[in-house]
Design brief:
The chain is of the alpha/beta class and about 250 residues long. It has a single domain, classed as NAD(P)-binding Rossmann-like Domain (Rossmann fold). About 35% of the residues lie in helices and about 20% in strands. It is built from 8 helices and 8 strands, in the order ααβαβαβαβαββααββ. The protein has an 8-stranded mixed beta sheet with strand order 3-2-1-4-5-6-7-8, with helices on both faces. Strand 7 and strand 8 form a beta hairpin. The protein starts with 5 loop residues before the first helix and ends in a 20-residue tail after the last strand. The structure holds zinc ion. Zinc ion binds next to helix 7.
């Protein structure tokens, strides 16, 4: 047994077979900013066999208050390179594929080759819409998170079992300038929830955030869960637009 994983393998919910499942899994982390920084570290540490990270950005000083996978020495460098080096330093036994690209409907299908779960590390509606539609097309879970200020929300959208991202979130504000204010731990909390749900979905254990959204209000430290239901008129998964879909 790899000593590295002993503290999770001794959990009855995981065991050696669960660790094997993690080693065989492939995850796409769509963006290595505030969310992806933390999910990438936890999923690498947990021994996910193959992690693809996709991001088009280079590291800027204003990223460093929350994007803790990166460090000052990498300013100006592609975030996927900075992140991949850190992930391999943390766990050289896994495969990390950095892809410096802006995720779009033109490249998402190729990015999902060999991927079992999509983890949202993006910061805008358009990218999430691309990820959501790809999740529905390929039947892959989409572990969503959104962060603003001191607050965070997380949900896992699983095709055929739950509402989808576009059932719940409509329209989008285009990010402007530096984007909204945000404190690092808000992204860290959301990303930790995402990493937890990703492990559970791979292992088939516990109750992932299916048809539920965790809302975390950091300033007064309130956390609650709201139930979600599918929108039959959803343009992505709704029966009205997609009569073949049984969601
Ligand atoms: Zn939908």
């Amino acid at each position: 047994m790899d000593e590295r994983y002993v503290r999770q393998i001794i959990l009855p919910e995981i065991g050696p077979q669960g660790q094997e499942r993690l080693a065989r899994a492939g995850v796409l982390i769509a963006g290595v900013g505030g969310l992806g920084s933390v999910t990438a570290l936890y999923l690498a540490a947990a021994g996910i066999g193959h992690i693809k990270i996709a991001d088009h950005d280079s590291l800027e000083p204003s990223n460093l208050n929350r994007q803790i996978i990166h460090s000052e020495a990498f300013l100006g460098q592609p975030k996927v390179i900075s992140a991949a080096i850190r992930m391999k330093a943390l766990n050289p036994t896994i495969r990390v594929t950095p892809v410096q690209t802006r995720i779009s409907s033109a490249n998402i299908d190729a990015l999902l080759d060999g991927v079992d779960i999509i983890v949202d590390g993006s910061d805008n509606y358009e990218t999430r819409q691309v990820l959501n539609r790809a999740s529905l097309r390929h039947g892959l879970p989409f572990v969503y998170a959104g962060v603003r200020g001191f607050d965070a929300m997380v949900s896992s959208f699983v095709p055929g079992r739950t509402a989808c991202f576009e059932c719940i979130v409509t329209g989008g504000e285009a990010p402007s300038g530096r984007g909204p204010g945000i404190v690092g731990p808000a992204a860290g909390m959301a990303a930790s929830f995402q990493a937890m749900d990703t492990l559970k979905l791979i292992l088939g254990i516990g109750k992932p955030l299916e048809n539920r959204m965790v809302c975390i209000y950091g300033l007064d430290m309130r956390i609650h869960c709201v139930n979600l239901i599918s929108n039959p008129q959803c343009k992505a998964c709704g029966k009205l637009y997609n009569p073949d879909k049984r969601i």
